[in-house]
Description:
The chain is of the alpha/beta class. It folds into two domains: 1-131, Ubiquitin-like (UB roll) (Roll); 139-401, Aldolase class I (TIM Barrel), CATH 3.20.20.70. It has helices at 17-20, 35-39, 74-80, 184-187, 197-211, 227-240, 259-268, 282-289, 294-314, 337-349, 374-386; strands at 2-7, 45-50, 56-61, 64-69, 85-86, 94-95, 107-110, 113-116, 127-129, 139-147, 166-171, 194-195, 215-220, 247-252, 272-275, 321-328, 354-359, 391-396, 399-401. β3 (56-61) and β4 (64-69) form a beta hairpin. FE2/S2 (inorganic) cluster binds next to loops.
Amino acid sequence: xxxxxxxNYEKCVECGFCEYSISCPSPxxxxxxxxxxxxxxxxxxxxxxxxxxxxxxxxxxxGSEFEVPERITAKKALELSGYRFxxxxxDDAIFAPCHTGGCFSCALVINGDLKPSCHTGVEKGMxxxxxxxxxxxxRIIEGFSPHNVGGVGTPYQLKTGxxxxxxxxxxxxxxxxxxxxxxxxxxxxxxxxxxxPWEGAANLTSMRKRFRVDRMAISGGEPTLNHRWxxxxxxxxKKLNSDSKxxxxxxxxxxxxxxxxxxxxMEAGITDIGPDLKALRVxxxxxxxxxxxxxxxxKYLNTSWEAVKYIxxxxxxxxxxxxxxxxxxxxxxxxxxxxxxxxxKIASINPEIQVCGLDYRxxxxxxxxxxxxSEEMKKVKKALEEAGLKKVIVQTSRGHIGx
Length: 403
Ligand code: FES
């Protein structure tokens, strides 16, 4: 049985996002790629069974011929041909975490070009190579801009709000499906031009010069999804910014940040990191991120906590600055019990780590919530401090409140 995604006219508000930002790879005949389904800000796409007759076509994958149904993605064609795709990186599988065509982690060499297999339709005679090692990695990156408060991994003393302190770029594609996604215009963008790591690093470096700052950041979406791209990006950024003042900052949900990946990134030159710890309990994590597969949610959540501990033990504070983000809204936390327990757990790792409570607000699909008040955020701060943390800040609608 095949699925296509149809517009749900009861929910559609004609915002136009699916036309200007989500690029449909096959507007005349849905190939079931999922990009509009995940990326519609109003949840106005629904899966329906596709009973339209479809023929079979021949494709060549890694030199072998396969016969597959037409009107499906290259990813689906490979799955039907015995290739494995996963949403957590594994050695013998193709990593496909976003399913929206932005991260290019699932990219394969398709008819000679590197293309995201989740967002490319299968064609008669298509030739696919799954070994992409020799290819320059690509990824959709946009939103190059200066910022005056920075991100989660920015030290509090710099967040004065007086002038620019950092320039940042944003990577498309995320493995989570948070209804509160604050950057969904980038996260679900599949129409931007993919960039090489060298182009991304050169752009950010020229922004640094233009705005006369020393901090350069990449956020998302989720930057870590395309590991090869990110490592090359930071290596190049370091090469172009070899002075001692340069700071190379990664903001991440840390859900796939394994020890090996952390080591690669540290070696590539990052100096500041801001992992968001979405929750302590898997149920809370699922509620926030909408990851329905419990086993996968557990893996993501455990990996993010292990990443923070590993960075704290091995790299912090001498080799890297780490600031941790903790989301808060009543819809996630009806009381402060779990926030306090999160504080206890971070304090047991290292009480000196900067922790920032983030006031999650109505964005993307979660527009029925109310942004926490400054008073609520002060209570979050108090709970984290009572748990033993020494450097707690909270983000509020009026700016940051510091330690
Ligand atoms: S999984 Fe295909 S582009 Fe991200």
